[in-house]
Amino acid sequence: MHSEKQKHSFEPKIIAFVCTWCTYAGADLAGTSRMQYPSNVRVLKFPCTGRIDPVFILKAFQQGADGVLVSGCHPGDCHYIAGNFHARRRFAAFRKLLEFVGVDLNRLQFSWVSAAEGGKWVEVVTDLTEKVRAMGPMAEFKQLALEEQWSGTIGTPELKEAYNAI
Amino acid sequence: MTQPIDTSIYIAITEAIRDEAKRLLLEGQVSAVIGYAGARRKGSAQPVIISQAEDAAKLIFSPASVNNLALYLTKAKKEIPKNGKIGIVVKGCDLKAIVGLMGESQLKREELYLIGVPCAGVLASTAQPSTGLTAETIAPKCTECNAHLPAGCDYVPNVQLPAPLQLEEKYIAEITRLEALTPVERWAYWKEQFAKCIKCYACRQVCPFCFCEQCLCDRNKPQMVESTPRPAGNTAWHIVRAMHLAGRCAGCAECERVCPMDIPLNLLNRKMAKELKELYAYEAGFEVNDKGPLSTFDEKDDQSFIK
Amino acid sequence: MQKYISKQNLNTLLDTMIAEGTRVVAPCLNAGIPLYEPIKSASEMVTELLPRRSSKEAFFPVCEDIMSYAKEGQHVSLKDIDPSRFQETVLVGVRPCDAAAIPVLDAVFSWDYKDEFFLERRKKTTIIGLACTDADDACFCSAVGLSPGETKGSDLFLTPLEGGGYACETFSDKGEALITSHKELFSEQTKAKALPLAEPQTEKIDLKKVKAWLDGHFEDPLWDCIAVRCVGCGACAFVCPACHCFDIVDEGTEKAGKRRKSWDACGFWKFTHHASGHNPRNLQPKRYRNRIMHKFKYYDDKFGQTLCSGCGRCVRICPVGIDIAAIVEEISKK
C-alpha cells in the first residue's frame, strides 16, 4: 500500500488550522486508517473554527507558510452550535481582503471535514499541497520581511549580503 | 476648470449651531457640547468641547470641519467627562458612526443630543484650510456621499441644501481599477503604499470604532503584529486594521484623512464595505442594528469557497 | 568660502557623487508624496515641496537593527551591527528648519551616552542646506528665532539667485572639502541678487518668557483646555525634525532575530505604561503637556536651546488641528 515517495524540488510548507472536534478527529482517523497524505502539512488544533482569528492566517504566511488550510465541522455540526457559521462569514470577508491586497487565493483553502471523513482530509490536504507545489514558494511575505525603510539599511547590497551571511 | 461647490448655507448653520448650543447649556439640557471652533491658520477648524453657554459663540461650521467628532464619545477618550447628556455636532457620515457605536452598545441614544448638519461637503486633507470647496478640493468621501442630510437628530438647522453636484466617485473608480489588476500588481501597489507607513497610529486613534482598551497591535504576549515600522509589520497592521473594521466601518474616512503619509486607507474600508454589501446586503446607515454582518450569520450563507 | 554653482552644475555634482558611490539623499516624490530619500539621479530632486518627514531620518532611521541574535542548541550568539558599514551620504536640498534641528539632535545623542549609530551616520553625512522660498501659514520658523535663510546645521548652504543658479556658502570643513573636491563645478560668486525668500509667517515669540511660564505651571488648566482634543497618535513626533524618542524591541523567533530601534512618541498611551499596569501619564493632556514641556523647557534646561525649529509639520498633520505655534504664542502672552 505504501506508494513510492516521489522526490520533488520544492516541498511547500502548509499550515492547517483545524477544529478539535471534527477536522482534527478526521485527520486522526486518516492516520489510524493508515491513509497516506503529504507530510507537508503542519496541523494546529483549535477548539473551534470560530476561534481561528484571521490574524493567525496572516501570521502563518509571514512566518513562511506557502499555503494555509482552515478546516472545521460541517454547518450544523459545530460543537458550540454556531462557531463555524460565524467563521464562515469572517473568512468570506478575509479572503476578499487578502485578494485585494494581492495575495493569490489559491494558497488559502477552507474546508469542512467531519470526524468520519478521513478520506476527505487526505483529499483536501493532497490537493492543496499539489496546487501550492505547482505555484512555487510564497515569496511576497518573505521578501517583505527582509525589507527595511531606506534609512535603516546598513550599506550596499553586497554589504547587506555579507551581513546576513554572518 | 474648478467647479465651485456652494457652501453659503454654512453661515446660517454656524449661527443655528451657536444658538442651539447656547440654549442647551443655559437650560442645562446637556453638560457639554462637542463641536468645531476656528483655529490660528486661516480658515482652519478644530474640535472643541464647551461646557459654558458663553463659549457657544466659538462654534463654527465650515468646509474645514472635517473631523468625525463621534470619536470623543467613545470609552477610548477617557479625558472627556461623560456625565449627563452630551450635545454633539454631526454630519451625516459622523452620524453613521454614532449609529454603529449604538449598535455595539457603546453609546446610548438618550445620553446624546444630536445637532445634525446638512452638509454639502468638506475639504480633502490635501487642501489648505483656507481654500474654497470645489470639485477638486472636496474630500474624496464626499464625492460618494449619500447622507448629506442626517436623519433622526434632535435638531437640524432649517436650511435648504443646494442640489449636490455630480462628482466623479473616487473610491469606486479606484477600487474598480485595482480589482482589474493581477494579484502581483495589486501586491506591488499596496507594498509601495504601506512602505511609507511610520506607525504613528493616527488611523487607529481617530477611528471611532477603535475603542479597544488595548489594541491587539500593542500587545506583545503574544505579539501578533510586529510593532516596528518596517514594511512587514506595516502591511500586517493595515490588513488587521481593515479586517477589524470590516462590517463596522461607517465610512467617515478619518483614517485616510489623517494619514501623514497619504496612504489610501479608506480604499480598504470601502472595498470591505462593498463586499459585505454584496455578500450579506449590509450597509452602514442611520438605523441601529444590534448585530453587524460579521457578528451574525445565516445558515444559508454562501459557502462556495469552502470545500 | 563663498562660491557660485549653476543649476546644471549642481545636478552634475549630484550625479557625479552618485556615480562615485556616495548615497545622495534629497527631497523627491515617492508614491505621491515628497520625502527625503536616496535618489538615483539628480533629476529626481524636487525642491518645491516640503518633505512630509524631516531629514532627521538620515541619522535617526525610522527603524534600524542594532543587534542580532541566533540560538543553536545551547549556544547563543550575539552579533553587533558594525557602524563602519554606514554609507557616506550627502544630504542635499535640506530646508533651513530641518537643518537647524540637526545640531539639536547632536546635543542629545552625544550627551551622557554617545549613540554610535547616530554619531557615525552624522559623521559620514554632509549637509547641503537650501534657503526656503515658499512657506505656508503653518510655518513658524520665525517664531522660534530662525528664518527662511537660516544656515544653522548646514555644511554648505545654497541660496537661489535671480537668473538661476545658487550662491554657496560653506560653514564647516565638510562643506569646504566638498567644494574643493569638485572645484571645476563651482565658480566665483556673481553679483546676481538672491531670489526673495519666503515671507516670515509669524512674529518672533519670546521663548525665555515661555520657559519662565512653563517653569511654574506643570499643573495648569491650560493643558486640559488645549489637549483634551488630542487623540494620542504619534504623528506630530514622527514628522518632527527634532523629536528623538525611540523604542527598542526584539523581533524574531526563539531561534533567531534582531534587536531593533524605532521611533517612539510621548503622545502614545503606551509610552509611559509601566509593566505593573500603572501609567503616570494616564490622560492625554498629561502626555501633550510633556510634548510642550520637553520642547520649550526640559530641553532648554539641559542644553540651552529649544527643541523646535518651526517647520510646521505637526501643525499641518495633526488629526485634530492642534497648533503648537498658537499654543506657544498663547503661553508667551500669559
Structural summary, described in words:
Chain A has 166 residues and is of the alpha/beta class. Chain A has helices at residues 23-32, 54-62, 83-101, 118-135, 140-146, 157-165; strands at residues 14-19, 41-46, 67-72, 108-112. Chain A has one domain: 3-Layer(aba) Sandwich (Rossmann fold), CATH 3.40.50. Helix content of chain A is 43%, strand content 14%. The longest helix of chain A is centred in the middle third of the chain and has 19 residues, at 83-101. By secondary structure, chain B is an alpha/beta fold. Chain B has two domains: 9-144, no CATH class; 170-280, no CATH class. In chain B, helix 4 packs across helix 6 (231-245) and helix 6 (231-245) runs parallel beside helix 8 (265-280). Chain B starts with 8 loop residues before the first helix and ends in a 27-residue tail after the last helix. Chain C has one domain (2-332). A seven-stranded mixed β-sheet of chain C has the order 1-9-8-7-6-2-3. Chain C has a four-stranded antiparallel β-sheet with strand order 5-4-11-10, with no helix packed on it. Chain C is globular, with a radius of gyration of 21 Å. The termini of chain C are far apart. The chains are: A alpha/beta (166), B alpha/beta (307), C alpha/beta (334). Chains in contact: A-B, A-C, B-C. At the A-B interface, helix 2, helix 3, strand 4 and helix 5 of A face helix 4, helix 6 and helix 8 of B.
